[in-house]
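Hi R.,

As promised on Friday, here is the backbone we talked about, encoded as structure tokens. Could you run it through your design pipeline when you get a chance and send me back a sequence?
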């Protein structure tokens, strides 16, 4: 359906848990986030009901995220149920990849073909520092496991950390060696990301990185092909095997093309990433709303979706206080 700014909204990200097996310094505090009790997060049946309402309002693509989605038990079963909701065409997964190798076949059997895997550096020591303990080799094992399955698309997501040691070329070179799509994403001033950005040594935009890569791979041209449903633009460099994606989440407002809403693990439907408020689907479901009522509430939330974010403004009403791990990215 169209929102109040006449944008087609057909994509929903679902965070299935706030928990994570890593503690990326720009995403989560070292001690983790306050644990949410099981009874406060949506059950699988409740998530599937929200997906039913979403699909009847035109949502076709679902992405499962977190926290780390693979830490919640039974995710392949949830994905199977969502994939069978009439109107849902794809269910994809965003993961840090740490447990992906052992989940790859189950996720594939559940119908997942598109995997986004966070990969901020190819340096195992820096990876361990940023993630506070993660083993890079496990992520690579996860990527290789899903690439070995026929018909899968893998994108890596590299957040621009503003530190020289990140060596952004290395992720592109790794992606080329595996025939996958590297993407570079500007860090957003949300949660721990705000503090990280204040302390960062370098400050560059996605556009700066696009130009930087041109020094090595030659002048790129914008590609008309897009391997996803999101805001990334993809570029073909003459000296690079595949496409490279850029997500200028802060420097360039792509809100005009925004196609998405987000459901938190506690059932808050957020129409825009930046604002705290949303529609409480957990309350609606647990106070007896029927499917028609859920559909009406979903449509209303989409209609009221904000026209644009205001990152960079000094005075933001209703500003989001959650960390990205509690929103799902
Ligand atoms: N745990 C999974 C993962 O890391 O892929 C899924 C959830 S994580 C919150 C989703 C994405 O959000 C990751 O790619 C992560 O790097 C990104 N992210 C976290 N904080 C961010 C921030 N402040 N700005 C931009 N991206 C951020
Ligand atoms: Fe966990 Fe993903 Fe946040 Fe890292 S980015 S702490 S892996 S939720």
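Update: got your reply. Pasting your designed sequence below so it's all in one thread:
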């Amino acid at each position: 359906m169209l929102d109040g700014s006449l944008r087609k909204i057909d994509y929903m990200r679902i965070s299935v848990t706030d928990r994570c097996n890593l503690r990326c310094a720009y995403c989560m505090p070292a001690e983790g986030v306050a644990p949410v009790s099981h009874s406060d997060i949506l059950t699988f049946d409740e998530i599937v009901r929200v997906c039913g309402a979403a699909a009847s309002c035109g949502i076709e693509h679902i992405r499962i995220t977190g926290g780390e989605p693979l830490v919640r038990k039974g995710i392949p079963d949830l994905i199977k149920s969502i994939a069978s909701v009439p109107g849902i065409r794809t269910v994809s997964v965003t993961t840090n990849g740490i447990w992906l190798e052992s989940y790859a076949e189950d996720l594939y059997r559940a119908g997942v073909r598109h995997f986004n895997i966070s990969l901020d550096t190819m340096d195992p020591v820096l990876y361990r520092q940023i993630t506070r303990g993660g083993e890079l080799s496990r992520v690579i094992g996860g990527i290789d496991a899903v690439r070995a399955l026929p018909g899968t698309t893998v994108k890596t997501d590299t957040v621009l950390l503003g530190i020289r040691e990140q060596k952004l070329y290395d992720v592109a070179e790794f992606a080329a060696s595996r025939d996958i799509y590297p993407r570079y994403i500007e860090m957003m001033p949300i949660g721990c990301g705000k503090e990280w950005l204040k302390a960062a040594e370098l400050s560059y935009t996605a556009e700066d990185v696009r130009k930087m890569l041109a020094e090595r791979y030659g002048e790129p041209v914008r590609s008309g092909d897009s391997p996803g449903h999101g805001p990334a633009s993809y570029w073909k460099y003459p000296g690079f095997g595949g496409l490279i994606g850029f997500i200028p989440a802060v420097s360039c407002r792509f809100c005009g093309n925004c196609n998405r809403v987000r459901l938190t693990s506690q059932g808050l439907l957020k129409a825009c990433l930046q604002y705290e408020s949303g529609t409480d689907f957990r309350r609606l479901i647990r106070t007896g709303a029927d499917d028609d009522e859920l559909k009406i509430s979903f449509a209303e939330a989409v209609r009221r979706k904000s026209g644009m974010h205001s990152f960079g403004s000094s005075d933001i009403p209703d500003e989001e206080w959650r960390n990205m791990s509690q929103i799902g990215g």
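One thing I noticed while checking it: Residues 44-56 form the longest helix (13 residues).

Thanks again,
M.
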